[in-house]
Amino acid sequence: MFEESPWHERFFASAWRQVQPQSFSADQSRRSAEALREMLQLESGSRLLDVPCGEGRITEHFAQWGHSITGVDRSADFLEFARQRAAARGLTIDYRQGDMWDLQLSGPFDAAFSIWSSIGYAGEDEDRRYFSRIFEALRPGGSLVVDTQCLETLLPEFEERQWYPAGEIVVAEERQFDPVSSRVLSMWTFAGPDCFDQVESSIRIYSYRELESMLSEIGFGDFESYGSMELEDFGVGSSRLVLIARRPDSTQARLS
């Protein structure tokens, strides 16, 4: 069913470029950013990293609040959209084009975000490399927030067919879960007045334990979890997994 070339290269060059900026309202993005700010309890002027940042829907709020923020994404289209909007709003944001699996960053950052299911695109080695680069870029005591689906959130009410409107484009997804590879294999259809496109995706879904274990092996600790950006308790059947992991500070490292 799936092409041999990386599916994400075709996916993010498809009509998804038009869909993603329409997938969240301005109010939804603002509330997600406010939830991140509440979780992290950031000091004024904190240095932050959003990767992948997409079209900058989260990044720009932290710039408005006076933080120094870097946004990294592979998509030139999303970054151009983000830069134009930042310029129109008079915001200073360090947007960079780069591969999330081979980040070249000059830290240290006080916190980093991985928002909206941005892991599992390839294999575990790539995800481990991604999280390792973030760990290295964080200051001791810095935090990482991962917002994603996991087995505990996906499987209890798994639907093989879903659809939703994104502006004038209708997005339809037909999917199946492969328990052997723990991947969701999907066929996406995008239909609108000026477009019709079909693309595939294959996303590795981790359990909570698998994801926490990976982060622990890298060096993260002091985990907290929520079931949504509304900061609900996490459990089987939650809508999302929002996981906070911290790089130990020097005192914690000595005590361990």
List the helices and strands and how they pair.
Layout: H1 7-11, H2 16-19, H3 26-40, E1 47-50, H4 59-64, E2 68-73, H5 76-88, E3 94-97, E4 109-114, H6 124-137, E5 138-148, H7 151-154, E6 161-166, E7 169-178, E8 183-192, E9 195-204, H8 208-218, E10 221-226, E11 241-246, H9 250-255
Parallel strand pairs: 1-2, 1-4, 2-3, 4-5
Antiparallel strand pairs: 5-11, 6-7, 7-8, 8-9, 10-11
Strand arrangement, major sheet: 3-2-1-4-5-11-10
Shape: globular
CATH topology of the largest domain: Rossmann fold
According to DSSP, the number of beta strands is: 11
Low-confidence stretches: 251-256
CATH level-4 homologous superfamily of the largest domain: Vaccinia Virus protein VP39
Structure description:
With 256 residues, the chain is α/β, with parallel strands linked by helices. The chain folds into two domains: 7-149 and 206-255, 3-Layer(aba) Sandwich (Rossmann fold), CATH 3.40.50.150; 155-202, N-terminal domain of TfIIb (Single Sheet), CATH 2.20.25. It contains nine helices and eleven strands. The strands form two sheets. The chain has a seven-stranded mixed sheet, sandwiched between helices. It has a four-stranded antiparallel sheet with strand order 6-7-8-9. A hairpin with a 2-residue loop joins strand 6 (161-166) and strand 7. The longest helix has 15 residues, at 26-40. The protein is globular and about 50 Å long. Residues 251-256 have low confidence and may be disordered.
